[in-house]
């Protein structure tokens, strides 16, 4: 019995050691898998000035591409400030015939005007272009303000020309044109909130409409009871007077030729008392 007990105790100790070794092996592999994800998300949060959950496994490839583009761009702007966004946005709106203030509203909602922003989904720049969209629009550096804003204006103008509605164009900019079904904003928990934010910013940023002041017309005085109001006499213009004279001459010509002169007024008629 004592030998059996000693053998059982040894087996228990061995099983505990094996169990701890298995847990340690799993922890090592978990650390190997999780550490790059945590490092990638922390880099995106630090470089892109955005809130990213460190253990988020979503959009890892777009985030890595965005960090690579950021690493290539950053040496070009060390010690050099980017140009202000407002003039670039206004020029892009006028060049692509966008409603004034629409592109500015999109840039404000997307990045709040931060040129180096990287979103939790891997979108880049002030207008938050994805890598696929940037390649499609011919953008070589998504963190370059001029290229990013110009490409965003062209893409937004294409959506506006396709749907002919500002709300649908904003929804297509956020979720893609393929998500617009039956001319309604997608209900995915994100796009509808995005569209409302863009519309609020658009109504705030667009210039006020010009109101043309109408000339007030004084009301006519009411006529006294039993008194007849005289008809209105409109002054004749010079053209109307000439037309009236021409019509009178035409009537006289139809009746009997040119009008006769009165006796005694002609230049060739002799007056009384003149010598013969």
Rg over C-alpha atoms, rounded to the nearest angstrom: 43 Å
Mean pLDDT metric: 82
Tally of DSSP helical segments: 9
Quote the CATH topology of the domain at 80-205. Answer: Lysozyme
Just name the CATH architecture of the domain at 80-205. Orthogonal Bundle
Mass-distribution shape:
elongated
CATH class of the domain at 80-205: Mainly Alpha
Secondary structure layout plus pairing:
Layout (H helix, E strand, L loop, with lengths): L1 H46 L12 H14 L11 H11 L6 H10 L19 H6 L8 H19 L2 H10 L15 H15 L32 H19 L20
Helix pairs in contact: 1-2, 3-6, 4-8, 6-7, 7-8
Quick description:
The chain has 276 residues and is mostly helical. The chain has helices at 2-47, 60-73, 85-95, 102-111, 131-136, 145-163, 166-175, 191-205, 238-256.
What does this structure look like?
With 276 residues, the chain is mainly alpha-helical. Among the domains are: 10-73; 80-205, Orthogonal Bundle (Lysozyme), CATH 1.10.530.10. 54% of the residues lie in helices and 0% in strands. The chain has helices spanning 2-47, 60-73, 85-95, 102-111, 131-136, 145-163, 166-175, 191-205, 238-256. The protein is elongated. The relative contact order is 0.07.
List keywords for this structure.
elongated; mainly alpha; disordered C terminus; 276 residues; Lysozyme
């Amino acid at each position: 019995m004592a030998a059996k007990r000693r053998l059982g105790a040894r087996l228990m100790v061995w099983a505990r050691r094996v169990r701890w070794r298995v847990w340690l092996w799993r922890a090592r592999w978990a650390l190997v898998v999780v550490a790059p994800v945590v490092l990638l998300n922390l880099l995106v949060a630090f470089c892109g000035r955005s809130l990213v959950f460190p253990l988020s496994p979503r959009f890892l490839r777009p985030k890595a591409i965005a960090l690579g583009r950021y690493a290539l761009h950053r040496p070009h702007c060390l010690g050099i400030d980017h140009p202000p966004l407002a003039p670039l946005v206004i020029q892009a709106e006028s060049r692509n015939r966008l409603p004034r203030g629409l592109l500015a509203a999109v840039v404000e909602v997307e990045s709040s005007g931060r040129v180096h922003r990287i979103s939790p989904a891997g979108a880049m720049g002030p207008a938050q272009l994805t890598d696929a969209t940037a390649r499609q629009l011919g953008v070589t550096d998504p963190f370059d303000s001029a290229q990013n804003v110009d490409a965003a204006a062209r893409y937004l103008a294409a959506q506006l020309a396709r749907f002919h509605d500002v709300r649908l164009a904003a929804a297509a900019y956020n979720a893609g044109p393929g998500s617009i079904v039956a001319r309604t904003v997608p209900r995915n928990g994100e796009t509808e909130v995005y569209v409302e934010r863009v519309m609020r910013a658009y109504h705030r940023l667009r210039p006020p409409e010009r109101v043309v002041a109408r000339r007030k017309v004084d009301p006519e005085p009411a006529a006294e009871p039993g008194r007849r109001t005289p008809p209105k006499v409109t002054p004749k213009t010079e053209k109307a007077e000439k037309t009236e004279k021409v019509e009178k001459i035409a009537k006289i010509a139809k009746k009997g030729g040119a009008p006769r002169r009165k006796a005694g007024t002609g230049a060739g008629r002799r007056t009384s008392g003149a010598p013969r």
